[in-house]
Amino acid sequence: MGQLDKAQSFLDKLEMICKPLTDGPRYTAMIPEVYGEMGWSLLRSAAQHYEEANKCFEEALEEDPDNTEWIMGYATVLSRLESIPGTREKYKSSQCVNHLRRVLELDPDESLAMVMLALKLQQDNQKKEANELVERALQKSPDVPKVLRNAAKFYRLERAVEKAIELLEKALGITPMNSVLHNQIGMCYRVQLLELFKNPLSSDPQYPEFQQKMVLINHCKHHFGKAFEHRPKTATKSQLDYADICIRNGEYSEAAEVYSELLKLEGIRPGNMQKIYLQAEMYRRKSDLNAVNLLQKGLKIKNNTYDWKLCYKHLDNWVKRKLCRDAHNSKALDVKGFLHQMDGHKSEAIEDFEKALEFDPSNEEYLSALCELRLSFEEHHEL
Fold it and tell me: Are the C-beta atoms of residues 255 and 243 closer than 8 Å to each other?
């Protein structure tokens, strides 16, 4: 803003505060409060910062092990890391559970810790204690949006969708612009919608089931749309859910527009990008080669996730189908070589690329892949 004198004044004040607290940098006193606040700030930003947030809470708790705010932050970041492919292997659910129980030992009225613990116990099928914790939390904090949101998630997973919607509507009345709440309520309406799709009467405009279906479609689109309205890079899941609803309603051009925008995004977390490639491929499957290219991009994101396995399965099925019809299909042989390469079977991959070139000798893409693979193979054997 060009207000340099004012900026310097704040820096001077900060230096005066930090000077007696640290021997380190002039403007940073790495005391528990700073580590804790850094942890919360990183936790609120984006998933790629969660591991750094985790370290901050660890540092804060080393100096102040009974601080419930820092323990709560630590439990929250552990819970999120457990759900992310690529990091979940490092973290055990019991770590988060232990910290949430510690919060409740120090502060038995911490309602957010109750519902978070309930969600963890629900995963472990400890339903009785989980239900009791959610009920207690709602009694103590009936108007706290985070408590309502987590309780709603609990009830949705218990298939008590109406109860979940009731809680989320209440939370939205308090914080109407909260994108996470909109996403959660969209998921609830989608559960109801998918159930209604099973009823054949929902396809006939003469029946009330059809009108119910259209109402639910509009609810889903509204809430998923609100969820990513201001967060296109971080709310990719909401956009994929929105596109899926459009496809189910026959709004193909609207779905195509969503996929087109998602495929342009940069700096997306690998797991989310994999989901984008996979779902966009499933939509574009009729265009065949375009879909294959999307699946190959998804496989190149080397996370051994459920979505990675789906990408592999779809590609493998495509290759088998094509080669069954035409054993000389060069593109299918190229993709077969790519799959062998992903599996680490380099010699088989080389054979496939050689066959692809045999039937399409002027294809530079196949030649480049073969040369690169041969070079890698030779370097490995020289070692």
Answer: yes
Nearest to 216 by CA among 243, 238, 259, 187: 187
Phi and psi for 16 in degrees, rounded to 5? -65, -35
pLDDT in tens, 324-376: 988 888 888 998 989 988 888 888 888 888 888 888 888 778 777 777 777 76
Q: Where does 11-108 sit in CATH, by number?
A: 1.25.40.10
Domains 11-108 and 326-383 share a fold: yes
Helix, strand, coil percentages for the chain (3-state, nearest 5):
80, 0, 20
Secondary structure element (H or E) that encloses residue 162, with its range: helix 161-174
Query: What are the angstrom distances between the C-alpha of 79 and each of 97, 113, 188?
Result: 9, 12, 22
Prediction pTM value: 0.73
- For tokens 């890698």, the residue is 376
CATH classification of 326-383 is 1.25.40.10, yes or no? yes
Cα separation, 319 vs 337, whole angstroms: 10
Domain residues of the chain, as ranges? 11-108, 125-176, 182-265, 326-383
pLDDT band at 91 (very low <50, low <70, confident <90, very high): low
Torsion of CA 111, 115, 117, 120, to 10 degrees: -170
In angstroms, rounded to a whole number, what is the distance separating the alpha carbons of residues 299 and 315?
A: 9
Contact residues for 12 (Cβ-Cβ < 8 A; gap 6+): none
Residues 6+ apart with CB under 8 A from 314: 278, 281, 282, 295
pLDDT of residue 383: 42
**Residues across the chain:** 383
User: What is the rounded distance in angstroms from the CA atom of residue 188 to the CA atom of residue 182?
Assistant: 10
CA 67, CA 301: separation in Å to the nearest integer? 39
Which residues of 76-183 form beta strands (DSSP E)?
none
Which of 122, 46, 112 has the alpha carbon at shortest distance from 76?
112
| Rounded CA separation 281/277 (Å) | 6
With residue 345 as reference, give the H or E element that holds it: none
Residue type at 170? K
Position 76 pLDDT exceeds 70: yes
